[in-house]
Amino acid sequence: MKIISNSVEYHVELKGEGKPLLLLHGFTGSLETWSSLVQKYESRYQFIMVDLIGHGKTDSPHDYTRYTTEKAAEDLKNILETLGIKKACLLGYSLGGRLALSFACIYPEYVDRLVLESASPGLLTEKERKIRRESDRQLAERITRNGVADFIEYWQGIPLFKTQQSLPEDKRQEMRRQRLSNSETGLAGSLLGMGTGSQPSWWDHLQNLQFPVMLVTGEFDEKFCTIARQMQKLINNCEWKIIKGAGHAIHVEVDEKFGKIVSEFLTND
Ligand SMILES: C=C(O[C@H]1C=C[C@H](C(=O)CCC(=O)O)[C@@H](C(=O)O)[C@@H]1O)C(=O)O
């Protein structure tokens, strides 16, 4: 289905019955990344899958200021309102986790429980954010100059995704296909508008979260395990799961184990 929020046409798919669960994919991804999870648990949850702005079948505006975290969070609020959903659980992966946390900080009244997979609350200092904005700007420039295929060739090879090299070929090809289905405009806009250096820092807000939060990181993803360790100290009601045998994209690398821990957390009243 298509839902329009502030002139952006979002591609949204609903599947399953039960507790509403909003699923937010990562940078260069699409809602297709959740197919394994949805297939296994559609009898327990009403899955709301969204292609984020600039991704998948959702619009990719040319004005990168339309991609800000705050505007993307407002879009998610508008989508939930359009669907008549007053409160939902959220599961966000990486960029989708940063957006899920941003949504939860801005619109806490809509959040039942929050699962953050390999995600951060942003960067602590303006100096870090400035440096990151410049590196994301250079990546965006590369995408615009050389195209998506060149960028994905580079992106899938960064150290953060090292563990994905040992995935079965069919899984690697599926990830590649999803990444290649995105546009230069959308990926560049996402980096420029809602990159890690462009979003607000939520570090000082973590202590205010009142709903249950589960952080999930892969044991081989040192960077995001370090971030999760810091986050857990600041969040009142917070579990942190370190998943053996996984790197950054846990829901792809160890999908069965990931689905089990998420489902246990979401049904643990
Ligand atoms: C490389 C870093 O940051 C990027 C890595 C992960 C985020 C993401 O969504 C990747 C999803 C994927 O390709 O599977 C991405 C983001 O949050 O936008 C970051 O730019 C890093 O070292 O922080």
UniProtKB/TrEMBL annotation:
InterPro entries, per database record: AB_hydrolase_1, AB_hydrolase_fold, SHCHC_synthase_MenH
The keyword Lyase is annotated on this UniProt entry: yes
Keywords from the named record: Lyase, Menaquinone biosynthesis
Gene3D superfamilies: alpha/beta hydrolase
Reactions that this protein is recorded to catalyse: 5-enolpyruvoyl-6-hydroxy-2-succinyl-cyclohex-3-ene-1-carboxylate = (1R,6R)-6-hydroxy-2-succinyl-cyclohexa-2,4-diene-1-carboxylate + pyruvate
Enzyme class: lyase
Pathways per UniProt: Quinol/quinone metabolism; menaquinone biosynthesis; Quinol/quinone metabolism; 1,4-dihydroxy-2-naphthoate biosynthesis; 1,4-dihydroxy-2-naphthoate from chorismate: step 3/7
This protein's record includes keyword Ubl conjugation: no
Tree of life domain: Bacteria
EC number in record: 4.2.99.20
Gene Ontology terms describing biological process: menaquinone biosynthetic process
An annotated Gene Ontology molecular function: 2-succinyl-6-hydroxy-2,4-cyclohexadiene-1-carboxylate synthase activity
AB hydrolase-1 domain residues: 19-253
Oligomer and partners: Monomer.
Protein function: Catalyzes a proton abstraction reaction that results in 2,5-elimination of pyruvate from 2-succinyl-5-enolpyruvyl-6-hydroxy-3-cyclohexene-1-carboxylate (SEPHCHC) and the formation of 2-succinyl-6-hydroxy-2,4-cyclohexadiene-1-carboxylate (SHCHC).
Record family assignment: Belongs to the AB hydrolase superfamily. MenH family.
Protein name: Putative 2-succinyl-6-hydroxy-2,4-cyclohexadiene-1-carboxylate synthase
Organism from which the protein derives: Peribacillus glennii
